[in-house]
Amino acid sequence: MKALILNSGMGRRMGELTSRYPKCMSALTPEDTIVSRQLDLLVAHGVQQIVMTTGLFHQVLINYCKERASHIAFVHNPLYDQTNYIYSIYFARNELRGDDLLLLHGDLVFDGEVLEKVLNSPDSCMVVSSTQPVPQKDFKAVIHDGHIDKVGIEFFDSALAAQPLYFLKQADWEKWLDAICDFCERGETSCYAENALNTVSDAMNLTPLDVRDMLCAEVDTPQELETVGQRVEALKQRVVYMCFSSDILHSGHFAIIRKAASLGRLIIGALSDQAIAGYKRLPMINYEQRVEMLKSIKGVSQVILQPSLSYRSVLENLQPDIVVHGDDWRSGFQRAIRNEVVDILASYGGRLIEYAYDTAAEEKARQQGVYTAASMPDIRRGSLRRALELKPLIKAIETHSGITGLIAEKTVVYEEGQARSFDAMWVSSLCDSTAKGKPDIELVDMSSRFRTIDDIMEVTTKPIIFDGDTGGLTEHFVYTVRTLERMGVSMIIIEDKTGLKKNSLFGTEVAQTQDSIENFCNKIRAGKRAQKTKDFMICARIESLILERGMEDALKRAFAFAEAGADAIMIHSRKKDPAEIFAFVEAFRAQNTVTPIVVVPTSFNEVTEEEFEKRGVNIVIYANQLTRTGFPAMQHAAQLILQSHRAKECDDICMPFKEIIRLIPDEI
Ligand code: SPV
Ligand code: MG
């Protein structure tokens, strides 16, 4: 699209004000002239190609505008004092074909929202107002059946006040331009360009765009300049609010920020790290860094915290005049958030403005790989430590394959404007072995376990906690640590057992040997020495309660392991009653307030996350639920097929193909 700004007029009614520069350079506010405001708004709305006709003082205008917008083609009308703007358009005709056109007079002052509406019009349109009085001397548009038939100062029947701000589809515009050329070539150069329009309006689809009381007014006199200037000042005081959750800014975001800033004083809410981590992944740059980044964007006057996905607390405190958002939130999980915003705005008379979201810009950013950075080993490895700093409680769920990894990565539930998703993935030895049809006795070797991790990592971004069983021989363990660290795993948990390991949930029903404190501490120390980065964590898992060795033994080990360098302590129990877990946490926390505590509530599963958090637990691992729900469903399907001698009976329990295809993204 091109824009044509007509600035060849003499502006005689402005008196002294137009004695040294053209009317459009008159000051509206201390910061803006009429033309600087027009150019700022056009640029903010992405209108890049501008043609400007000039008259008296044309070099003054050219010098002034060149500092403000780079793509302006100036066309001088040398007969500016004898002709009307129809002739200026004729002069500029060669610059104006081949595209849609935004046509405006150079003395027009308007709200950014008016421009937005004009640019979004599906058909050619002219701005009219159904609420303004019909003027005696200025432009009016004659409207029949939603179509503008005539434009001029002489029409009163079926007419509304009209302003010379048009959006013209190329086909409509070229009809009008041809008529303008006909007029000028036969010497009719002192009339309005609208006289030519009226000869072809039947063949055009020009519609009225009613902006009611929004600002859109021409300035002809110093008095009008003052009144309109005051209205612009008031517009600039409007509080405009938009919330940002993204840590990656692409051109689509900047486009929306530019438009939002053109509406008033733009305040950006930066979503808290906790809120972002709750519904997608950990932000790659933290809240403070995002605030700095947002503050430095032109047009942003303030950045504040938005603590949750819900806008409620911010809107109730700030009561912005306008909330701005991309139109992408009309569907999907954000719809509930949008509905809440609409209701709150309605309660005090605020407005929501939605701009078309630039999915192409997002796609480009995706193709450039910016979103996949989170899956790179160096970023992923440290993300568990960062999550522990950010969140009082981390929720991890078991994964044993790419598809279970995707479920852990993508499952989100929404409640009261909040989103809940898992923070991390647990690569369980029980479930990894089960998926391979093998017992959980360290039979599946490390190479195979690493292969599982690789499958999960390939399609996900969340931190991985690896179930390292006993860690094996110390001489082997150091290699495991290095490999996991290199892969981008965040934490290994090793249990203080030795010899043939059996799953803890067997308890004392099978023979299991606990390692000595000394040996296990040596293993931890060797692992800590082996790792190359500060990010990687080694968690010591204590089996004393499982093996019924008592609380005292469990605590003694916990303190010794923490002393040896363990980055976290996991306490396990197979009792339904959480009392022993609670007792351990209380006693440990009484002496150690910093080392994260990990629990696996498979047996004591009545305890809520909130309760764990209150007691000082930091990581809750749901260690086997996907395996324990998935395989019975498969078994059931196999039985149904055998019983029915066909697959039809199975249909009701099968996921439709469309859904399963959608579950697997082309790209993560
Ligand atoms: C696992 O998931 O493999 C575990 C936890 O080690 S448990 O099965 O409870 O021992
Ligand atoms: Mg295990």
Descriptive account of the structure:
The protein has four domains: 2-226, Spore Coat Polysaccharide Biosynthesis Protein SpsA, Chain A (Alpha-Beta Complex), CATH 3.90.550; 237-362, 3-Layer(aba) Sandwich (Rossmann fold), CATH 3.40.50.620; 377-623, Alpha-Beta Barrel (TIM Barrel); 629-663, no CATH class. The protein has 668 residues and is α/β, with parallel strands linked by helices. The mean pLDDT is 92. The chain starts with a strand and ends in a 5-residue tail after the last helix. Strands 1, 2, 3, 4, 6, 7, 8, 9 and 10 form a nine-stranded mixed beta sheet that branches. An eight-stranded parallel β-barrel has the order 17-20-21-22-25-26-27-28, surrounded by nine helices. α5 (170-185) crosses α6 (193-200) and α21 (551-563) packs across α22 (579-591). 40% of the residues lie in helices and 21% in strands. Bound molecules: sulfopyruvate and magnesium ion (MG). The site of sulfopyruvate has 12 residues, from α17.
Q: What is this structure, in a nutshell?
A:
This protein has 668 residues and is α/β, with parallel strands linked by helices. 40% of the residues lie in helices and 21% in strands.
